[in-house]
Fold each of these.
Amino acid sequence: MGALLIIALILRIIIVRKFDIIPKGAQNALELVVETVYKYTGSTAHGTGELLCSYILSIGALLIASAVIELFRVRAPASDITMTFALAFMTFILINVYGVKRKGVGGRLKSLASPTPVVFIFRIISDIAIPVSMSCRLFGNMLGGMIVMDLLYSALGNGAIGIPSVLGLFFNVFHPIIQAYIFITLTLTFINEAIE
């Protein structure tokens, strides 16, 4: 997080000192990223996603940055269950906050009891299971990539030239980007489900 904050400050203070009406250079790239995330969140969580753009962008940046750290042979923070649970728990809080904000407390409870009150307890259990399942899925996938790379380095020993670099791009860059995308999509889907 500290590295991300430093990068954000450098971008804002040194690279993009003043935002222009007609963007160019770094400002154009930043606006393209923000606009893409804004459109995606808006289309996935209808009517609420636009408000979640900064949260979603932060999650994506954190997960991708934590995976890139692994390229330098540092354990990825996302391969720790406490970090993934913290992200999933924040998502759980947002699901319920947006559900209550849209429907009220009574409406949120009523939606959990539809179509019949018999399913209420099962819906509560499934809602409580959301942060557990999201955190375990993300943790397992990120830890799995790290273990595969460690096994590869151990197996190749001193001959670990070239092959780990190519596979590292998959397990430390491409694979974590997919995991971040899935986590973000699940976050928006669960929030959208809570507000409908």
Amino acid sequence: MRMIKTLSALAATLALAACGGGEQPAQDTLTVPPTDSTAAVRAKRTQNIFHNIPSPMETAGLLKKAGAEYDKDILNDVRNVDNYTAASKQALNLGVYGADLSYASVFNNTQESMLYTSCAQKLAKKLDVSDAFNAQVVDRLEKNRNNRDSLLSIISDTYWQVDGYLKENQRDNISALMIAGGWVEGLYIAAQVTKAHDTPELRQRIAEQKLPLVDLLALVRTYSPDDPAVSSVLGDLQTMDSLYTDVVIPKGNSTITQDNGVAVIGGTAPLAALTDAQLAAITSAVTTIRAKYIN
């Protein structure tokens, strides 16, 4: 997932200890075959969401400019992975760990990236989408662990493949929850970084999450409200939407320049006017929602 959308020689051992353990059956299945027209709407909304979420390379430029440093404490603990036994929690946290994996990769924290890769692979196996997140993908990630650009590209491609695999197998709702989890985690990470490194550019990225939120809400609304997992996530997204009501995002031309190989965002549009009160409210709400997803 693209979001604000990457330990030592013991890394492999820690990965097994943190992400290992026996498989447990999912407690819900979340399988509702979509009609052809609904599937088309969902595919379009998903595409819009991905296009409106800043890429990890954009995020890298913003974090570099803000002077932010890697902080593993803001990420979901890899030891939590075996706690997710319900399919809905597995889907949400596949998205969460994807955002965490991108964040660790942005900072070239390759050893920790592999821990999050192991967690994502395990959840994919529990959700029966291991074909899209298979040993070959993990091998590619391992071989490119010192190449941030390649690593981020593989992560993005892999999650697209997971999304496509779920849709092909009429499990679109699993994909929707995965995307929602990734969006929430990305926003949470951005908000946490802003606490220590508050810059106009980072506020802009938080404000711009209003755009994919519109499509995410529309996507989740295509599923039955009788599904408790979907209904709960819909309520969470509606809460976030209400906080974005008065956030204005000016239109204008944007540019992307390179700074030592890192994309930096610029342009002629004025920055979004995200007030202190709006930022505090968004940070508080997304922190509460995210805690519900990972616990």
Amino acid sequence: MDFLTALGQLRDPMNWVLYAPPAVLVLALSSLLAGWLKLKKGIRTNYTRKVFHIMNFTYAAIIYLVGSTVAVVIYGGFGLGAMVVCYLLKDGNILLEGIAREQDEPHRRLYVIVPFAATAIAGILDNSFFTRFAVVGYLVSGWGDAAGEPVGVRWGKHRYNVPSMAGVKCTRSVEGSLGVFVTSVMGAFIALQISRVPVLPSIPIALAAAGVATLVEAFSSHGLDNFTVQMSATITAAAVAMAGGL
């Protein structure tokens, strides 16, 4: 189902009954869990933010499998609303603190809402033009991109500067990029099974999608990599699959 078809199906109230409550629940639980880990357990935001990241991208892949694009559109709409709410919250609020990084000051709220908006735009484009492989972008961005920051924080030795919005200083590491690649391969392979691609062809497609996404992530502007990684993974998977006659 492409994006325009999904928009038409939003008029069906049954879709809202089925998909709105779990979307709100997942967004609330993931925000609360990330905030609890930060405020109560003292875990760094670099890690708690990725708990939120992984839970929500994984949910997008699951709900896509269950309810196709219309379910993802409903979820994305609630997600954007949730990020606007977080943007307006005061410092110290549990819903904000688990996903707003201190190193993004004085623009930490900007780096809450922009990545989610970037994710939504990439999701719209992927579902409009590469519908079958959109889920590859979900899991590569959700798992692979999520792995880069905590791996880099923990083991990153070889660091390099990357561009960012609003002048916030940002670095990434070779070790973090390796984490992106390894996790992206796994995410892409699982996504290809969701897309009903045979197992053996899925291996080179997953490697290609992960490789391109890793290179793109390494040089993407801080805050916009949810867009660039998601798009590059989906486009690469679609192109390699098409070249292989799939």
Amino acid sequence: MDGMRSSRDRIVEAAAALLTEGGREAVSTRAVSAAAGVQAPTIYRLFGDKRGLLDAVASHGFAAYLRGKTALEKTPDPIEDLRRGWDLHVGFGLENPAYYALIYGEPRPGAESPAARDAALILAGQVRRIAEAGRLRVSEERAAHLIHSAGAGITFELMSLPPERRDMELSRLARESVIAAVTTEKPAAAGGVTGNAVALRAALPGIEVLSPGEKALLAEWLDRMAG
């Protein structure tokens, strides 16, 4: 078992080095086998196929980012925490373009890489905190999709430019525009039906006086009101 883990780590590290040096095209089974000192069947046994290997490489490269994002100390202001998360996301892409393109550059409908899925869960947690504070003006799902798509779009735009031509003010402007679109200045109690519905929907899992069936029905109504 230890030998299998050692081979897996060696393969992932070799593939990661090839990705960084030559991009995705450089990560061929033959090149990885030679660099890791293993036979091709070992790669298929451990990862299933090349897509599985690339997903493992993406998780390897994203690990530092995910640790940093998870370790961000929460402040009393969840919207400020979202700002910091956005900046970390864009910074990761600019510092690690090969990994970022591997994770987000080839959308697969109905399927996410483990790295992208973990990042999405962290973003969902940040959005949930804003909803619980009564400051979300749209549904949690819509807010998360908008934040992610805008963040990825601005990251790819900046990645496409030479470093000396990158205008980081674009990222700030995009970030603030998205925040203004999905959040309110004041808690939902002062902001109308939609904000209140979103806030109550966020709190619903912790309401113990309702049965699972009642929660499901109320969740459906609240989602409809928030949508």
